[in-house]
Every structure is written in structure tokens, then in C-alpha cells.
Design brief:
Elements: H1 15-18, H2 32-51, H3 58-68, H4 76-82, H5 88-100, E1 104-108, E2 114-118, E3 131-136, E4 142-149, E5 167-170
Parallel strand pairs: 3-5
Antiparallel strand pairs: 1-2, 3-4
Helix pairs in contact: 2-3
């Protein structure tokens, strides 16, 4: 799977979501504006990494920029296919570091591959931040449904929740349902 094309910026308020916009030029040559956009995006990515107490190395910047290029939750394999020049262990260590610093979250959508998604800026990956995920049975992509929170459960007092995973499965409405 490759990152999708540009995303509409209409009504986008979260700076993390804004960075999901692809900044690669579509022309054969780069213009000064293309270079400015890339430089500006690098600065924002560095700020995001630093805000989560992550040292911004060139590989971490590259991995995070690639993560922003996905419009859906991605797997380690998705990252590996896009980042062919970065070895698998570096990508894996970067994912682990990003998770430890609550920059990304993971979930199991039942497909057999752990999915990852970049957290919103106000997310601390606590139980109150948990949201529902959607898995399309046809295009096999998973999406965060940030506006649908996982409900609170009345559990016995000695029970402590460590994680909750709620995945809705069906047809996403964006893919060709009959192509698979």
C-alpha cells in the first residue's frame, strides 16, 4: 500500500491532521515553493517529535512524515514498502519509541496485522482517549473514528483497565465493494 494523494484541508483544525497533506511535488522539477513546503513540514515534524520528548533524527523525521502520508491506519509492512531505504529494525524501533511517547497508537482489527495511527496532539493514550476503529472488509483498510469514544464500563473495584479494543467492521463506502 502506498500513501494516498493530497487531502482536503477544509475544516481541519488539528495540526497533526494538517501534516497528513502530501507535500511531494507532482511536477518533474521542484520549485522554491516546493522546497519551502518541505522545509516547513520538517520544522513542524521536528516540533511534534520534541513535544513528545523524542529526539528528532533524520530517520525519525522520515518515518513520521511517511506516517502522515497515510489516510488510514498502517502496518509495519506498509511502512517498510514505502521506506525501502530504511531497514526493518530501524522502522520497528521507531514505532516502539513513538508508541512509548504516545505519538502513535496501535490496535488489532482482526486482520492478523497490528495497525498503527498517529495520535492527535491532545492524546495521552489513556483510557479516556480511546476511540472506536473501523475495518473495511473489502479494501482491508482500517480507520480511526476519533469522534466515537469507547464507553466507560462499570467494572468491579479491583479490576484495572489496561486497554480496550473496539473495531466496527463493514463497508467503508470509499472503495469498490465488489473489486475483491
Amino acid at each position: 500500500m502506498e500513501p494516498s494523494g493530497p487531502v482536503s484541508t477544509t475544516n481541519i483544525r488539528d495540526p497533526i491532521t494538517m501534516l497528513r497533506i502530501t507535500t511531494e511535488p507532482t511536477k518533474a522539477h521542484t520549485t522554491p515553493m516546493d522546497n519551502y513546503i518541505k522545509e516547513s513540514m520538517n520544522e513542524e515534524v521536528i516540533q511534534i517529535l520534541e513535544s513528545r520528548d523524542i529526539k528528532p533524527t533524520s530517520n525519525r523525521i522520515l518515518v513520521l512524515k511517511t506516517m502522515f502520508g497515510f489516510d488510514w491506519a498502517f502496518t509495519l509492512g506498509d511502512l517498510e514498502s514505502v521506506l525501502g531505504s530504511v531497514d526493518k529494525s530501524t522502522i520497528s524501533r521507531t514505532i516502539h519509541l513513538f508508541q512509548a511517547h504516545q505519538l502513535i497508537h496501535s490496535f488489532d482489527d482482526g486482520s492478523g496485522s497490528v495497525k498503527y495511527a498517529v495520535c492527535n496532539t491532545d492524546c495521552d493514550c489513556k483510557v479516556d482517549d480511546l476511540h472506536v476503529h473501523f475495518y473495511c472488509n473489502y479494501c482491508k483498510k482500517a480507520f480511526c473514528l476519533n469522534n466515537i469514544r469507547i464507553p466507560h464500563f462499570a467494572l468491579p473495584p479491583d479490576v484495572e483497565i489496561e486497554s480496550v479494543n473496539l473495531v466496527i467492521k463493514g463497508f467503508c463506502g470509499k472503495c469498490s465493494k465488489f473489486a475483491t
